[in-house]
Design a protein that fits this description.
about 350 residues, 16 helices, globular
């Protein structure tokens, strides 16, 4: 029991704020989407159990089996294309009775462990960097195939976060960023029609208020109508009358803003800021160089996920379908995030 608790003595902040955010989420979700219960409790139970499980595994074991985690992730990403469930034209989920899992979410922490180990195992040079990009591009391409642009971008940002923590010739990174910026305009040619419409709707949502701009308009109305204290749980007009689409997943922030107002949003901001602060403590006190790179990747991917979710709810970022970590009702996202945080605990070396 003492050995079990030692992990949490080194870092009590991450589990404390994580469980608080999950509890806060359950209160909000019971108000705006009671229909997801009791099934959603299954995801919560599994997420907490996996958080405890992965926090108890020594980080060196993750390094030892990183290649197997990578191969397993590739296989797991292929499964939806074979036995996946088609939902709204996308094949992202594998049905498991009353539940379903999204492999592209689950594999993110394992891909980051692999890439962190790969980049820190030997001296980083241009050849090894290009090989790392190629190996990471394979799972990203499989995620895009489903398609899931939001998850693919977040996964890529996790890779970038890992790279930024390393010691290497900065000209290598600048060259890669230059190539990325140069190729970015050409990405428009590969976007699906609905993805192009979302970007166009960001510029002027009123151009198509009943179509591409509808989600953004309803979200901004919900955020603005909450004012200081909100309309009250169960009393939000946008949420309770279903004007706000996906109010429990992609637009949970707007739901909180409408029903709990600025004060509710402030609670979310403070809790998430504290979570990022504690993740930063892992980055500053890692068990080894690989753990440092891994924690950097986790920090950037969760920060970007939070920024993108809040940004699209406020109409400053295109709608991408990215859940708010630990708060949105996406079961696979919750499980993935708790696995990440559990692995982070095992990556920390000091109190």
């Amino acid at each position: 029991m003492t050995q079990f608790l030692n992990v949490y003595k080194k870092e009590f902040g991450i589990p404390l704020v994580s469980f608080f955010l999950i509890g806060f989420s359950l209160i909000v979700l019971r108000s705006v989407a009671s229909f997801i219960f009791p099934n959603y409790f299954g995801y919560v139970f599994v997420a907490i159990a996996l958080f405890i499980f992965f926090s108890q595994i020594d980080f060196e074991i993750y390094r030892t089996f990183s290649v197997f985690l990578y191969i397993g992730s590739i296989i797991f990403l292929i499964l939806p294309l074979v036995i996946g469930q088609v939902t709204r034209g996308a094949v992202r989920w594998i049905p498991l009775g009353p539940w379903s899992i999204q492999p592209s979410e689950i594999v993110r922490p394992f891909l980051l462990v692999f890439i962190a180990d790969f980049l820190t195992k030997k001296e980083l040079n241009s050849k090894r960097f290009v090989l790392a990009v190629f190996l990471f591009a394979i799972p990203v391409a499989l995620i895009l195939k489903q398609p899931s642009l939001g998850v693919a971008v977040l996964t890529s940002l996790g890779f970038l976060g890992t790279v930024l923590s390393l010691k290497y010739d900065k000209k290598l990174l600048l060259t890669a960023l230059f190539v990325l910026v140069f190729l970015m305009p050409f990405s428009w040619l590969f976007l699906a029609p609905y993805q192009k419409m979302r970007i166009e709707a960001l510029i002027d949502p009123t151009k198509d208020p009943s179509g591409a701009g509808y989600n953004s308009i309803q979200s901004m109305i919900a955020v603005g109508s909450g004012k200081i204290t909100g309309r009250g749980l169960g009393r939000g007009v946008q949420t309770q009358l279903s004007f706000l689409p996906e109010r429990h997943t992609d637009f949970i922030f707007a739901s909180i803003a409408e029903e709990l107002g600025f004060l509710g949003v402030l609670v979310v901001f403070i809790a998430i800021f504290f979570l990022f602060y504690r993740i930063g403590s892992v980055f500053s006190c890692p068990k080894n160089y690989t753990a440092r790179a891994f924690s950097s990747g986790i920090f950037l991917t969760l920060f970007a996920q939070t920024f993108v979710h809040i940004g699209m709810n406020m109409g400053i970022i295109p709608i991408t379908g990215v859940p708010l970590p630990l708060i949105s009702s996406g079961g696979s996202s919750l499980v993935s995030t708790m696995i990440m945080l559990g692995m982070l605990l095992s990556a920390k070396s000091c109190v």
